[in-house]
Amino acid sequence: MWNGAEPALSGHLEAAKKAEQLGFAALWLRDVPFNVPNFGDPGQIFDPFVYLGALATATDRVALGTSSVILSIRHPAHVAKAATTADVLSGGRLLLGVASGDRPEEFPAMNQSYDDRGARFRDSIDYIRAVGSNYPTLENAQGTLSGGIDLLPKPHGSRLPMLITGGSQQNLDWVARNGDGWMTYPRNAAAQGQVIADYRQRVKTAGQPDKPVMQSLYVDVVSDPAAPPRPIHLGFQSGSDFLRSYLREIETLGINHVALNFRFNHALINTTLELLADTVLPDFS
């Protein structure tokens, strides 16, 4: 259970293995370097890339995602090196969610400015794409690649799959063109359907193949399956019946994957994982 100021870290690898065994599709890690108290959420305690290495060896099949790496406070060479390492160690299971950052207090600690984070984000995307090829050439504000050096390892597949979070300080046409998928937040059904349709139309207009859309969702799953929903931060408390019907509805709207966040879940995590595996996952296998 994690329902206090900081997450308990006991049993986390066992929970990851259990999620894989029960048939969950992915495990998602956050990138929050500093605990900023006024956010009320310290995020994830472990460094995401070190943790990805541990998860890569502890699991065999489940996808390993970041939601999301803050590119505007990390150098893209370090991100690319760490991410491709995790991708290779896991046999190509990495999904690299990226974002521009939304905690202003972290930026001075990294000697980075907040207002121009969108420009660094764009340059970092270009840099990470470039070093996926052999002996690349590139020149932007993040560095110069002359073609005489190479970054190893290379991604397990043709390139690292990068999913862009929200707008990341970019216009939506740029997001549609440059990401391999899109990560967004929960909304009411009408609004969510509109933004997903708009995103997919922009992808089509850019002449690109359809791309997946992932949504995050905070849940507090109670034991009574018929319990009605009650709003919580970026999600709801409910029984499994409502959660299942909600997931069916957003699937029809074009959501391909939902990352469930148990930040406010009152039951033990293993108990909730088993409950969802029994009552919800069979509808989406």
Distance between the termini: 26 Å
Helix content: 25-40%
Number of strands: 11
Largest sheet, strands/sense/barrel: 9 strands, mixed
Low-confidence stretches: none
User: Treating each run of at least 4 consecutive H or I residues as one helix, how many helices?
Assistant: 9
Mean pLDDT: 95
Query: Please, what is the oligomeric state?
Result: single chain
How do the helices and strands follow one another from N- to C-terminus? HEHEHEHHEEEHEHEEEHEH
Radius of gyration: 19 Å
Summary?
With 285 residues, this protein is an alpha/beta fold. The protein has helices spanning 12-22, 48-58, 76-89, 106-109, 117-131, 172-178, 189-205, 240-253, 269-279, and strands at 26-29, 63-70, 94-99, 137-140, 143-146, 162-165, 181-184, 213-221, 230-232, 235-238, 257-261. Strands 1, 2, 3, 6, 7, 8, 9, 10 and 11 form a nine-stranded mixed β-sheet that branches. Strands 4-5 form a two-stranded antiparallel sheet.
Explain the overall architecture.
The chain has 285 residues and is an alpha/beta fold. It is 36% helix and 19% strand. The protein has nine helices and eleven strands. It has helices at 12-22, 48-58, 76-89, 106-109, 117-131, 172-178, 189-205, 240-253, 269-279, and strands at residues 26-29, 63-70, 94-99, 137-140, 143-146, 162-165, 181-184, 213-221, 230-232, 235-238, 257-261. Strands 1, 2, 3, 6, 7, 8, 9, 10 and 11 form a nine-stranded mixed beta sheet that branches. Strands 4-5 form a two-stranded antiparallel ribbon. β1, α2 (48-58) and β2 form a beta-alpha-beta unit. α6 packs across α7 (189-205). 32% of the residues are buried.
